[in-house]
Amino acid sequence: MMLKLDGKVALVTGGSRGIGAAVSKLLARSGASVCFTYLTDDRSALRCEDEILRMGQSCMKQKIEVSNASKVRKAVDAVLERFKRIDILVNNAGVWKRGEIGKMSEEQWDETLDVNLKGTFLFCNAVAPAMKKQAWGRIVNIASTAGQRGEAFYSHYAASKGAVIAFTKSIAVELAPHNINANCVAPGWVDTDMTANVLQKRSERKAIERIIPRGKVATPEDIAGAVLFLASDLADHIVGTTINVNGGGMLM
């Protein structure tokens, strides 16, 4: 029962596909009203919204760029206008694109940092006052194992996710006195559209699975479970931590 989110309002960025969609749907199944953002895929957004509505839960979708401060503010204001509160914020929107050092363009670097880090900051910054006012909140930022140990050819991505972890620890100390818990979930390899260009190659997938003690790549639902836990009352005394969901891959 402590995993029930009845009466709670959740805002999930990048919530129409992959990890974000799994999080949106699991939070809805647990009783929360769910608002999610997306950028381009209207069909997936409609599908996710329809699934949540068929669960009997309220749902609101918004098509925005998470790195645009004015659009983020308008998106948060729209949720507050309709639902009067935001209890759970999940910053999931992200990009993961190869970029070799020495060849990476400034545009590649900026895009990754803008979406992965600036977007997380903008939503936390916009939502924190409402959470303080209601004296309750849960912020779950999606990080990555890359942010903990680095990732060759994805240094911009690793830098952004490492910064998300440090950012989360910092705001966790600020927000804890207001009964707002901020934490991270750090996935390893996850079977999503973002990683399909690698995981659909049988030889590369097998090589990746060999270095994961569990012997398999995570599903989006595996990550969503950790998010639900951190959003629930069971995680009431967990502040500023990072939960690794990688099948033991960080140990290898």
Q: Residue-averaged pLDDT, rounded?
A: 96
Provide the domain count.
Answer: 1
Highest CATH level, the class: Alpha Beta
Distance between the termini: 36 Å
Order of helices and strands: EHEHEHEHEHHEHHHE
Name the CATH architecture.
Answer: 3-Layer(aba) Sandwich
Q: Outline the low-pLDDT stretches.
A: none
CATH superfamily: NAD(P)-binding Rossmann-like Domain
Radius of gyration: 17 Å
Apparent shape: globular
Structural class from helices and strands?
alpha/beta
Number of strands: 7
**How many H/I helical runs?**
9
| Strand order in the largest sheet | 3-2-1-4-5-6-7
Fraction in beta strands: 5-15%
Topology (elements, then pairings):
Layout: E1 9-12, H1 18-29, E2 33-38, H2 42-54, E3 59-63, H3 69-83, E4 88-91, H4 106-134, E5 137-142, H5 146-149, H6 155-175, E6 180-187, H7 196-199, H8 202-210, H9 220-231, E7 242-245
Parallel strand pairs: 1-2, 1-4, 2-3, 4-5, 5-6, 6-7
